[in-house]
Each structure stands twice: as C-alpha cells, then as structure tokens.
Amino acid sequence: MRYPYTLILLHWTTAALMVALAISGLLYSYQIVGSNALIFHQWGGQLLMILVFIWIGTRLVFRLGPRNPDHGWWEKMLAALVKGALYLLLVAYVVSGYVTASGLRSTELVFPINVAFARSDAGDLFLEIHIALKWALLVVLSLHVIGTLKHSLIDRDDTFRNIWITKKG
Ligand code: HEM
Ligand code: HEM
Hints:
Layout: H1 5-29, H2 35-61, H3 73-102, H4 115-118, H5 121-155
Helix pairs in contact: 1-2, 2-3, 3-5
C-alpha cells in the first residue's frame, strides 16, 4: 500500500524538522551558537508540535490500506513497535521541550505553561528527560533506518517506495 500523500508530506517534513531541532539543540547545548539557536529551536519546536498533532490525528481518523503481505509476522511486529516508539518519542520531545521552554527567562512560546511549575523540581525533570531522549531517538531511528535498508537492499520490495515523495524512490 502506498501511503496517502498527506502522510508522506508529514513524514518527511517532520523528519527534516527533527534533524534541524537536534542540530540546533546540540549547537545551543555545546555553546557553539548562542541564544539564536535556542530561539530557532523553540519556533521549530512549536511548528513540530502542530505537525505531530495533525499527523497523529490523521492516523487516528483515517485507516490505512492493507500492508505488504510479503512481510513476515516478526517483521510486522518489529516495524509496528519501532513506529509506535517513534510516535511516542515525538510526543515526549514536544511535551518535555514545551515545559522546559516555558521556564526560560525569555521564552519564545506563544502559550507558555505556568512558569512556577516549569521552574520547579518537577519541571527540571522534564529538562532531564528532554536531554536523555536523544539516546532513545538514536537507537529507535537507527532501527527504523536499518529496517528500511533491509527492505530496499535485501528484500528489494516497495516498503520505501510506498512512503517516498516520488513513486520511483
Ligand atoms: C526523525 C525521523 C523519522 C521519524 C520520526 C519517522 C517516523 C515514522 C513513522 C511514525 C512511521 C509510521 C507511519 C505510519 O504507518 O503510521 C514511519 C514510516 C516509515 N518511515 Fe520513517 N521516520 C523518520 C525517518 C525516516 C527515514 C530517514 C527513513 C528512510 C531511510 C524512513 C523510512 C520510513 C519507511 C520506509 C516507512 C514505512 C514503513 C512501513 O510501511 O511499514 N523514515 N516513519
Ligand atoms: C523532535 C524534536 C526535538 C529534538 C530532537 C530536540 C532536541 C534537543 C536537543 C538535542 C537539545 C540540547 C540538550 C541536549 O544536550 O541534549 C534540546 C534542548 C532544548 N529544547 Fe529541544 N528538541 C526537540 C523539541 C523541542 C520542543 C518542541 C521544544 C519546545 C517548544 C524544545 C525546547 C528545548 C529547550 C528550551 C532546550 C534547552 C534546554 C536547556 O538547556 O535549557 N525542544 N533539544
């Protein structure tokens, strides 16, 4: 089944935005670029939040057609686990980043949450989580890409083509 174009667009814009957010977050954290990286990061983060909301909403409302019948049960299970983990990671990034950004002295958030909570010990926990998530992202995204490479290079099936922007892929 080829993914609907809306989901293809959401998948690749989200992926590109996540790369930009990871780079800007690290540039800020290692003090390579100062506050400009964090300003970009917060605006990008708010855009990501909207995309994630639309993506998950679309997936909940519309059912996808039948998946590739050639995939073994363990492949289907592993792929579903990894994709579920990626959705969870997106939500965890958005929530933890949002709380953290609400506690900044000059936040770029349009609707920051309660600043006292964001700066409390509980709020600090969200920062810790936000910082730790990059390792989880590294592992899960690597599995996702390795799975895609297996289908493209070993099985030579349509898995990647089904989500690529052009039909050729
Ligand atoms: C941060 C970046 C990425 C995120 C968050 C992400 C997330 C996801 C999610 C959640 C799905 C499942 C869509 C659904 O069925 O509901 C998916 C599907 C897919 N992604 Fe990614 N992805 C990312 C990057 C990539 C990259 C770099 C590749 C290719 C190398 C890729 C290849 C695929 C493929 C082939 C599918 C379809 C899998 C299938 O049909 O079972 N993704 N991705
Ligand atoms: C997938 C999305 C995201 C990724 C990959 C990401 C990645 C990162 C990374 C790598 C850092 C540097 C901390 C470290 O060393 O690990 C960081 C910091 C930060 N992020 Fe994100 N982030 C994302 C989403 C968000 C969102 C949605 C927001 C809020 C709107 C946000 C707000 C922040 C803030 C405020 C910091 C600075 C924390 C501090 O050191 O005070 N992030 N992010």
